[in-house]
Amino acid sequence: MAMNAPFRLDKDNGKIMGVCAGLANYTGIETVWLRVGFVAAAILGFGSPVLIYLIIGLVANN
């Protein structure tokens, strides 16, 4: 799978900041699976995925 387009937040299809929707567009993975993965990682990872999500949302704010 070739990833030619740069990563961008998808605020139109996003729920909070558009990070999962943007990652789904970039990688070709279904958005729901990325959201489930972030929630599971946040529950099992003691909060560090939440920080990563926020950092991606703030840094990639374009």
How would you describe this protein?
The chain is mainly α. The protein has helices spanning 19-27, 31-44, 48-59. It is globular and about 30 Å long. The protein starts with 18 loop residues before the first helix and ends with a helix.
Largest sheet: none
Distance between the termini: 24 Å
The number of helices is 3
Task: Work out the strand percent.
Answer: under 5%
Structural class: mainly alpha
Characterize the overall form: globular
Q: What Rg, in angstroms, do the CA atoms define?
A: 11 Å
Q: Give the beta-strand count.
A: 0
Mean pLDDT reading: 85
* Uncertain spans: none
Q: Helical amount among residues, as a percent range?
A: 55-70%
The sequence of SSEs as H and E is HHH
Query: Which assembly state applies to the chains in this document?
Result: single chain
Short structural description:
The chain is mainly α. It has helices spanning 19-27, 31-44, 48-59. The longest helix has 14 residues, at 31-44.
Keywords:
mainly alpha; 3 helices; 56% helix; 0% strand; globular
How are the secondary structure elements laid out?
Elements: H1 19-27, H2 31-44, H3 48-59
Helix pairs in contact: 1-2, 2-3
